[in-house]
User: Fold this.
Amino acid sequence: MIFYLHGFRSAPVSWKARALADALAARAPGGVSFWCEQLPVSPREAIALVEKRIAAHLAARPAVPPALVGSSLGGYYATWLAERHGLRAVLVNPAVLAPLSLRQYIGVHENLYTGERIELTAAHIEELRAFETAAITRPERYWLLVETGDEILDYRHAVARYAGARQTVLEGGGHGFIHWEDYLDEIVRFAGLA
Assistant:
């Protein structure tokens, strides 16, 4: 099972989520499943939702532990969850300093894929602080994918935060990670599902 955690203003219908779901269905044996739901704006509610789904999956005693894939803010969440549950995580242009980087977005925004209006509040920024991960404990569980042309987040923060982990740093690109489809097979393998 792969749990895909999308970023702020994104959705399960994003091209990265759809491409990964399709890759997993095509490449992974035995009908391995994919989970991606719309995450609430509230970090506390988002983490509670994902933890509930992880707990339900683990209760079925899967042969292969689930893996997390997080993009942007989803990478911030995936790191905390990976540490808490001992899971593998692929992090795509992750927001490693989410409480700082998202502060400038306090206000009303439109979801890029659904058009839904969402409001990020100062209380949400405070909620994010509860899920900060100062340092990762087992770097071998992580794979960082970043592009140096990320126009929203400074990739160097992620490179420093995930020191010792597998890292793929690509020149150019952007926050949407334009090389995504080049890494789908390897992501499925890293998750232990191929």
